[in-house]
Fold these 4 entries.
Entry 1:
Amino acid sequence: MIVGAGRSGNTLFRRLLMERSPLYIPPETYVLGKIADLRLSARGIGWASTVDLMLATLEYHPEFTTFDTANLRDLALEAKGWPEVDRTVNTLLLALYRTLAKNCESDAIYYGDKTPLNTMNLHRIAPFFPDARYVYLLRDGVDVAKSYVDAGIYPDISSAAKRWRDSVRHWESFRVGIGSARYVEIRYEDLVKNPESEIRNVIFHLGLPVRDSVIDVSACLGDVDKLAHHENVARPPFSGSIGKGRVRMTPNEARQVRPILNRFLKRYGYDRV
């Protein structure tokens, strides 16, 4: 699971990883936190209704179109016929990732997720994937906050800065309970400067197989050509965005983010505002 604040190279990292390892990572799912809530609130409704509820939560999300899949009807029908031992939300979610991979003709033998929002819900999502490994992507919070606003994802710099800060806080809380063997942390700045080295290190740390050669995974990216804020993902990694937010940040914006970011920027070795 690739986590961290948005605008931190998550989608770029996803592409690079899929190109070099037999791994499928779909467009952002957004709904795993909601599914975790539904699993608790909808107890006792029966397996068939659980399947309908869980899959509809994803299919009816506004960005389901990024999956290039008409609907999840076939998976729903299949899941309703599973033997009792397989009738769990955990198994259903794994089957969902396999189905999405198959639909884009991926050769994956491992599956992942790349949704920054998951960072805020890791304690609730983790039970779905008891053997999961995690990659946390960290980027200068000033650059992230400015990029969030420029992309129209957040309306003001303070809200964007708080999202970066809260992502850091949630990750710090979560990683304490999973052990260092189950996660690796990388920085956006290192990824775009030395992509091959960083990807090799992550693949080794996670114990993933390496492809004989880099392949084209554009057919499985889905959201990259549909969402404007992912427009740079298809290009080769470049370091031109490092420090860009700091350069473009106005004095007024700097005053707003200073009390939000500085403590955490210092903790991770970034210059304070």
Note: The first strand starts at residue 2 and ends at 3.
Entry 2:
Amino acid sequence: MRTRLKICCIGNEEEAALAVRHGADALGLVGAMPSGPGVIDDDLIGRIARDLPAGVWAFLLTQERRAQAIADHVLRCGVSTVQVVNHVDPSELALLRSKLPYVRLVQVIHVEGQEALDLLAGYEPHVHAFLLDSGSPTATVPLLGGTGRVHDWEVSAAFVRRSNRPVFLAGGLDADNVAEAIRRVQPFGLDVCSGVRTAGRLDPVKLQAYVAQAARKAP
């Protein structure tokens, strides 16, 4: 099965078009965050999402923790997939599913150690997919994505094996390590931000190399 590609931190319509031309299956559109790259306003998120071709999904990244606030953010942006970047109470996800049953729900798990595996059972009944990242949500200034750091892929691989939902892998991926990441973790999809950027801008050369290496995989 082909590994799906999600390009995150899309900053404008031109970056969205570039990512789509290089074969992106999904784009990450970052709402307001306490830190990290790629934040754009909700109006721009909505415009980019509306203009995507069929078959390319727009993921809204939201820091909201309560079901109603998440639902409001989704409705403002007009997207059909929401990526919850905080470790929220699973009951809020259950409530969100009842409020917006047509919206795909992706829960981020920040892999800071083996304890990430303990989060799977509580979230799994309520989500459509997981995304494993390298943030630190309990830091003084929470880090909720875009860190450029690789986490422990052994933990990620164990999470993938145990999950009954698709799992995306994020955190420090680039053309040099993406093939090895696929081989070791076997994720449903990959998510990249800083690894395909230069001076904050989506770099077509890095993006092309990343996509090529993701397709090649590691022996």
Note: The chain has one domain: 4-216.
Entry 3:
Amino acid sequence: MTYVQLDHPFPIPPDTASVREVAPGILWIRMPLPFALDHINLWALADGDGWTVVDTGVGNDETLAHWDSLLAGPLGGKPITRLICTHFHPDHMGLAGPLCQRFGIRLTATIGEWTYGRMLMLEGGEDYIDNQVDHYRRCGYDRDLLDGVRERSGGYKDRITWIPANVSVIRHGDRLTIGGQAWQVFTGNGHSPEHACLYCPDLNVLISGDQILPRISPVVGVWPQEPDSDPLSQFMDSLERLKTAFPADCLVLPSHKLPFRGLHERADELLAHHHQRLALALECCTQPSTALEVLRRLFQRPLDPHQTGFAAGETVAHLNHLIHSGQVVRSEDADGVWIYGKS
């Protein structure tokens, strides 16, 4: 894939447990992640006598220790007075419980993200695990892959501490005052249920979370809880709305990779990417195929079981989009495995 040329005004990220100012009163923090994508960007916004922090990092002792160092050092001993989580994924909400408890604050998030995270934290029944296994069986997984699904079911809880039992809800269009400046809440969809972005007109800065990233596409997947959903339509609509809502030259602060300018160009690039993937998925359905068979054509590099799960989610998202647009039909074989073919 040939990428558009984006402007990266801050080409060198801060070291772990250090900060870099990217706009007046906005500090860039980078935390390690135990995944192939090995980092997350967090943001501390000067807010009176403390900090409004956006996202937390994954829920483990290492990240909590980094927070201890940051708070005692680069953040000047000032407390976190508000915690905003863009969405429920563990690298974003994983330490919400301990940080809120330590500073006596309430988590700020959209109701969709808080609810989903809280639900996954509490899930553990056999019906949940059975639904996970059945979904991927319908995708065409073999016995070995299904054994892995069963073993990893409930893995969300392994990457968080806890999600607080209450929440201060934000919604699309809300205005927050942080450090005396107005920040607008923009919610996007597709990557997660109700992903919150934050925009400050005075600074022309957009904290985008995972809704738009400079060099990778966030995972847009269909998951076992909503097997017939069309998140790709929601994601592409969100990209169009981002272009309408915010200036092309705003400074975008993403959760992964480098801050950038070139919001509209990057949104168009992601839209083109998914249209290309849709065309390839449709071609795969010339012959009746399972989701796993389509996956192996869409993702031809080696995938570990964890990556295969994400790839399955993305594959079914593209197939469901083609179903919703009338280009593909889904049937079942004698074992209930989904079969996709051109309509």
Note: The chain has a mean pLDDT of 97.
Entry 4:
Amino acid sequence: MKRWMIAACLLALGPSVHANTTVWQPSAGHTQIPIWPKATPDGQPAPGPETVSVTPAETYAAITNVTRPTMTVYAPQGRNTGAAVVVIPGGGFQILAIDLEGTEVCDWLTSRGITCVLLKYRVPSVPYVWQCDCRPHNLTTSVPSLQDTQRTLRLVRTHAAEWHIDPHKVGVLGFSAGGYLVAEASTRFKHDLYKPMDATDRESSRPDFAIAIYPGHLTTDGGKLNKNVPVSHDTPPTFLAQAEDDDVDGVQQSLVYYAALKKAGVPVEMHLYANGGHAFGLRPSKFPISGWPALVEVWLRTIGMVRS
């Protein structure tokens, strides 16, 4: 079972979890920026206060009960490429693996001259219904999470000049459930999930490129593409990476999505590895899959998002 799945179950059980009930805060020098100017659309009460938890057996932080979504901007180090990436952590729409699939990713991107915008989106997110085995039971849209993603992409473009970003080089990178949000943002940008609130919502929510790492929720049990990711020729260039021994979401997630992208004529690059499992993030291992970030860097140069 995926490590964050175990953590999510333990969060429900309580006794074996070390928890800090304060709201997650980024490292010094970075500030969380509210995504919504007023109340969140389709707001739902959380079962408790926002909590940052670490289980005794784990080495990453998990946030739950997020009702006030934010984004945190990490400026590039050294030469600024002008590109920006909205990073979307995974966690089954129940938690956010905020360091493993968030801040550590931003450290890598900013070291390559890319602005990182870390999205803390709303979780838990209905209508996902979970049981003790921590496995999702449907492929429906996590509406609040996708609303937060669409709004964040628009905010990045609104602040492009201020943050020294090229508004035509704004991409998304997500892991697991975050990979599903990457696919949804890439295919549903013509259909807003909320009513416009201000001038920001006149900006496009279409990513200029998309990176999905061990994505989930993309296929049915019958091996068909989830209808909630309507791939078209307008879907942005996409990079996929997954391990064949991924026993959580399964390698068919990337395979089916890749086939749909190819059929629609979308530029796509996919890397499958024999070993690596799930939830490996950027942390080094003995397997070749740890080299996927270097392949993303080459791909970004290939599609013209960054220069050599």
Note: The longest helix spans residues 143-158.
